[in-house]
Amino acid sequence: MKQNIYDNPFFFKKYKSLRETGFSFNDFVEQPAIKSIIANLTDKSVLDLGCGTGHFSMYCVENGASKVIGVDISRNMIEQAEMYNKNEKIDYMCVPIEELNLPNQKFDLITSSLVIHYIEDYSHLIKKIRGLLKNDGEFIFSTEHPIVTARKEMNNWFEDNNGNRLHWALDNYQEEGKREEHWWIDGVVKYHRTISTLINTLIDNGLVIEKIIEPESTPTGLEKMPELINEKRRPSSIIIKSRKY
Protein backbone atom coordinates (compact mmCIF):
# COMPACT_ATOMS: atom_id res chain seq x y z
CA MET A 1 0.00 0.00 0.00
CA LYS A 2 1.35 3.42 -0.99
CA GLN A 3 2.04 5.87 1.83
CA ASN A 4 -0.58 8.61 2.13
CA ILE A 5 0.33 10.80 5.10
CA TYR A 6 -1.64 13.78 3.79
CA ASP A 7 -4.93 12.03 4.50
CA ASN A 8 -3.95 11.59 8.14
CA PRO A 9 -6.28 14.17 9.79
CA PHE A 10 -3.71 15.52 12.26
CA PHE A 11 -0.93 15.71 9.66
CA PHE A 12 -3.14 17.38 7.06
CA LYS A 13 -4.37 19.96 9.55
CA LYS A 14 -0.77 20.90 10.44
CA TYR A 15 0.37 20.98 6.81
CA LYS A 16 -2.63 23.00 5.65
CA SER A 17 -2.09 25.57 8.42
CA LEU A 18 1.58 25.91 7.44
CA ARG A 19 0.87 26.44 3.74
CA GLU A 20 -1.98 28.89 4.38
CA THR A 21 0.39 31.25 6.16
CA GLY A 22 2.26 31.89 2.91
CA PHE A 23 5.47 31.71 4.93
CA SER A 24 7.15 28.41 4.18
CA PHE A 25 10.12 26.76 2.51
CA ASN A 26 7.93 26.09 -0.52
CA ASP A 27 6.99 29.76 -0.87
CA PHE A 28 10.46 31.25 -0.55
CA VAL A 29 12.90 28.55 -1.69
CA GLU A 30 11.57 25.66 -3.75
CA GLN A 31 8.76 27.17 -5.83
CA PRO A 32 10.64 30.30 -6.94
CA ALA A 33 13.52 28.10 -8.09
CA ILE A 34 11.29 25.75 -10.09
CA LYS A 35 9.46 28.63 -11.74
CA SER A 36 12.76 30.27 -12.67
CA ILE A 37 13.69 27.42 -15.05
CA ILE A 38 10.34 27.10 -16.82
CA ALA A 39 10.94 29.09 -19.97
CA ASN A 40 7.47 29.32 -21.51
CA LEU A 41 4.10 27.81 -20.67
CA THR A 42 2.08 29.28 -23.54
CA ASP A 43 -0.09 26.59 -25.16
CA LYS A 44 1.78 23.85 -23.28
CA SER A 45 0.24 20.67 -21.92
CA VAL A 46 1.38 20.00 -18.34
CA LEU A 47 1.30 16.99 -16.05
CA ASP A 48 1.70 18.02 -12.40
CA LEU A 49 2.71 14.96 -10.36
CA GLY A 50 1.96 15.42 -6.67
CA CYS A 51 -0.14 18.50 -7.36
CA GLY A 52 -1.23 18.96 -3.74
CA THR A 53 -3.85 21.68 -3.44
CA GLY A 54 -3.37 22.76 -7.04
CA HIS A 55 -1.43 26.01 -6.66
CA PHE A 56 1.17 25.13 -9.28
CA SER A 57 -1.45 23.68 -11.65
CA MET A 58 -3.29 27.01 -11.47
CA TYR A 59 0.00 28.89 -11.95
CA CYS A 60 0.54 27.00 -15.20
CA VAL A 61 -2.91 27.91 -16.53
CA GLU A 62 -2.52 31.53 -15.48
CA ASN A 63 0.73 31.62 -17.46
CA GLY A 64 -0.71 30.25 -20.67
CA ALA A 65 -0.84 26.45 -20.39
CA SER A 66 -3.54 24.95 -22.61
CA LYS A 67 -4.16 21.89 -20.43
CA VAL A 68 -3.04 20.67 -17.01
CA ILE A 69 -3.59 17.34 -15.32
CA GLY A 70 -2.89 17.45 -11.58
CA VAL A 71 -2.31 14.12 -9.84
CA ASP A 72 -2.15 13.40 -6.12
CA ILE A 73 -2.59 10.37 -3.88
CA SER A 74 -4.35 12.43 -1.20
CA ARG A 75 -8.11 12.87 -1.34
CA ASN A 76 -7.73 15.82 1.06
CA MET A 77 -5.35 17.54 -1.34
CA ILE A 78 -7.54 16.93 -4.39
CA GLU A 79 -10.63 18.23 -2.58
CA GLN A 80 -8.76 21.42 -1.70
CA ALA A 81 -7.52 21.75 -5.29
CA GLU A 82 -11.02 21.35 -6.70
CA MET A 83 -12.36 23.88 -4.19
CA TYR A 84 -9.75 26.63 -4.44
CA ASN A 85 -7.88 26.08 -7.73
CA LYS A 86 -10.58 24.90 -10.07
CA ASN A 87 -10.31 25.79 -13.74
CA GLU A 88 -11.80 24.41 -16.94
CA LYS A 89 -8.30 23.74 -18.24
CA ILE A 90 -7.32 21.66 -15.19
CA ASP A 91 -8.30 18.06 -14.50
CA TYR A 92 -7.46 16.67 -11.06
CA MET A 93 -6.95 12.96 -10.45
CA CYS A 94 -6.72 11.23 -7.06
CA VAL A 95 -4.35 8.33 -7.73
CA PRO A 96 -0.82 7.29 -6.67
CA ILE A 97 1.53 8.54 -9.36
CA GLU A 98 3.13 5.09 -9.53
CA GLU A 99 -0.25 3.75 -10.73
CA LEU A 100 -1.07 6.60 -13.10
CA ASN A 101 -2.40 5.40 -16.45
CA LEU A 102 -2.86 7.98 -19.20
CA PRO A 103 -3.04 6.04 -22.48
CA ASN A 104 -2.44 7.97 -25.70
CA GLN A 105 -1.52 11.16 -23.84
CA LYS A 106 1.80 12.97 -23.96
CA PHE A 107 2.87 16.26 -22.40
CA ASP A 108 5.13 19.20 -23.15
CA LEU A 109 6.06 19.54 -19.48
CA ILE A 110 5.94 17.16 -16.54
CA THR A 111 6.66 18.56 -13.09
CA SER A 112 6.94 17.08 -9.63
CA SER A 113 7.38 19.17 -6.49
CA LEU A 114 8.94 17.48 -3.44
CA VAL A 115 7.42 14.08 -4.16
CA ILE A 116 10.23 11.90 -5.55
CA HIS A 117 11.65 11.17 -2.09
CA TYR A 118 8.38 9.38 -1.24
CA ILE A 119 8.68 7.04 -4.25
CA GLU A 120 10.21 3.61 -3.66
CA ASP A 121 10.88 2.64 -7.30
CA TYR A 122 12.45 5.75 -8.81
CA SER A 123 13.69 3.99 -11.94
CA HIS A 124 10.22 2.69 -12.83
CA LEU A 125 8.73 6.15 -12.35
CA ILE A 126 11.31 7.82 -14.61
CA LYS A 127 10.67 5.22 -17.31
CA LYS A 128 6.95 6.02 -17.09
CA ILE A 129 7.62 9.78 -17.21
CA ARG A 130 9.76 9.44 -20.32
CA GLY A 131 6.90 7.60 -22.01
CA LEU A 132 4.52 10.44 -21.14
CA LEU A 133 6.75 13.17 -22.56
CA LYS A 134 6.49 14.50 -26.08
CA ASN A 135 9.69 14.70 -28.06
CA ASP A 136 11.45 17.86 -26.83
CA GLY A 137 9.33 17.67 -23.67
CA GLU A 138 10.73 18.70 -20.29
CA PHE A 139 10.73 16.98 -16.93
CA ILE A 140 11.41 19.31 -13.98
CA PHE A 141 11.33 18.04 -10.43
CA SER A 142 12.42 18.93 -6.93
CA THR A 143 13.24 16.47 -4.18
CA GLU A 144 14.80 16.59 -0.75
CA HIS A 145 18.55 16.90 -1.16
CA PRO A 146 20.49 13.67 -0.62
CA ILE A 147 22.55 15.31 2.10
CA VAL A 148 19.24 15.62 3.99
CA THR A 149 17.71 12.25 3.17
CA ALA A 150 20.94 10.38 3.99
CA ARG A 151 20.32 10.74 7.71
CA LYS A 152 19.08 7.89 9.81
CA GLU A 153 18.33 8.21 13.52
CA MET A 154 20.01 11.53 14.08
CA ASN A 155 19.56 15.27 13.91
CA ASN A 156 21.96 16.52 11.25
CA TRP A 157 22.53 19.88 12.94
CA PHE A 158 25.23 19.76 15.60
CA GLU A 159 24.70 22.47 18.20
CA ASP A 160 26.73 23.98 21.00
CA ASN A 161 25.51 24.17 24.61
CA ASN A 162 23.58 27.35 23.80
CA GLY A 163 21.72 25.80 20.90
CA ASN A 164 23.73 27.56 18.20
CA ARG A 165 24.04 25.49 15.05
CA LEU A 166 27.68 24.63 14.42
CA HIS A 167 27.64 22.39 11.36
CA TRP A 168 25.61 19.89 9.34
CA ALA A 169 26.66 16.28 9.75
CA LEU A 170 26.51 13.85 6.84
CA ASP A 171 26.54 10.08 7.28
CA ASN A 172 25.16 6.94 5.62
CA TYR A 173 25.24 8.73 2.27
CA GLN A 174 26.09 5.73 0.09
CA GLU A 175 23.51 3.52 1.82
CA GLU A 176 20.47 4.12 -0.33
CA GLY A 177 16.98 3.06 0.63
CA LYS A 178 14.19 3.55 3.14
CA ARG A 179 14.30 6.14 5.89
CA GLU A 180 11.71 6.87 8.58
CA GLU A 181 11.28 10.11 10.45
CA HIS A 182 8.92 12.08 12.66
CA TRP A 183 7.26 14.96 10.84
CA TRP A 184 4.25 15.90 12.96
CA ILE A 185 3.50 12.16 13.08
CA ASP A 186 5.72 9.09 13.53
CA GLY A 187 6.68 6.75 10.73
CA VAL A 188 6.89 9.12 7.76
CA VAL A 189 8.70 7.07 5.10
CA LYS A 190 11.09 8.58 2.57
CA TYR A 191 13.70 7.06 0.26
CA HIS A 192 17.31 8.20 0.12
CA ARG A 193 19.19 8.22 -3.17
CA THR A 194 22.59 9.64 -4.00
CA ILE A 195 22.95 12.54 -6.41
CA SER A 196 24.53 10.18 -8.93
CA THR A 197 21.47 7.89 -8.79
CA LEU A 198 19.08 10.81 -9.26
CA ILE A 199 21.01 11.99 -12.33
CA ASN A 200 22.15 8.71 -13.90
CA THR A 201 18.64 7.24 -13.79
CA LEU A 202 17.45 10.14 -15.93
CA ILE A 203 20.34 9.65 -18.35
CA ASP A 204 19.78 5.88 -18.50
CA ASN A 205 16.19 6.54 -19.55
CA GLY A 206 17.20 8.79 -22.42
CA LEU A 207 16.71 12.17 -20.78
CA VAL A 208 19.27 14.93 -21.17
CA ILE A 209 20.16 16.99 -18.09
CA GLU A 210 19.82 20.72 -18.76
CA LYS A 211 19.93 22.36 -15.35
CA ILE A 212 20.54 21.56 -11.70
CA ILE A 213 19.73 24.00 -8.90
CA GLU A 214 20.46 23.71 -5.20
CA PRO A 215 18.21 26.61 -4.20
CA GLU A 216 18.46 29.10 -1.41
CA SER A 217 15.93 31.60 -0.15
CA THR A 218 14.74 34.64 -2.02
CA PRO A 219 15.61 38.00 -0.39
CA THR A 220 11.97 38.36 0.67
CA GLY A 221 12.13 34.95 2.28
CA LEU A 222 15.14 35.95 4.36
CA GLU A 223 13.26 39.04 5.55
CA LYS A 224 10.14 37.08 6.47
CA MET A 225 11.85 33.90 7.72
CA PRO A 226 15.43 34.66 8.87
CA GLU A 227 15.98 30.96 9.64
CA LEU A 228 16.11 30.33 5.90
CA ILE A 229 19.71 31.58 6.05
CA ASN A 230 20.44 27.92 6.79
CA GLU A 231 19.83 27.19 3.10
CA LYS A 232 23.13 28.98 2.46
CA ARG A 233 24.89 26.59 4.82
CA ARG A 234 23.45 23.48 3.21
CA PRO A 235 20.75 23.05 0.55
CA SER A 236 17.76 21.04 1.73
CA SER A 237 16.43 20.42 -1.78
CA ILE A 238 17.70 19.87 -5.29
CA ILE A 239 15.94 20.71 -8.55
CA ILE A 240 16.74 18.93 -11.81
CA LYS A 241 15.57 19.89 -15.30
CA SER A 242 15.85 17.33 -18.09
CA ARG A 243 14.56 16.98 -21.65
CA LYS A 244 13.50 14.18 -23.96
CA TYR A 245 15.00 14.40 -27.45
Automatic annotation (TrEMBL):
This entry's Gene Ontology molecular function terms read:
S-adenosylmethionine-dependent methyltransferase activity
Q: Which domain of life is it from?
A: Bacteria
Which InterPro entries is this protein grouped with?
Methyltransf_11 (IPR013216), SAM-dependent_MTases_sf (IPR029063)
In the record, biological process GO terms are: methylation
Question: What keyword terms does UniProt attach to this protein?
Answer: Methyltransferase, Transferase
Q: Where is the Methyltransferase type domain?
A: 47-141
Entries under SUPFAM superfamilies matching the protein: S-adenosyl-L-methionine-dependent methyltransferases (SSF53335)
Gene3D superfamilies xref list: Vaccinia Virus protein VP39
Q: Which PANTHER family match?
A: TRANS-ACONITATE 2-METHYLTRANSFERASE-RELATED
Q: What is this protein called?
A: Class I SAM-dependent methyltransferase
Q: Organism, per UniProt?
A: Bacillus pseudomycoides
Taxonomic path: Bacteria, Bacillati, Bacillota, Bacilli, Bacillales
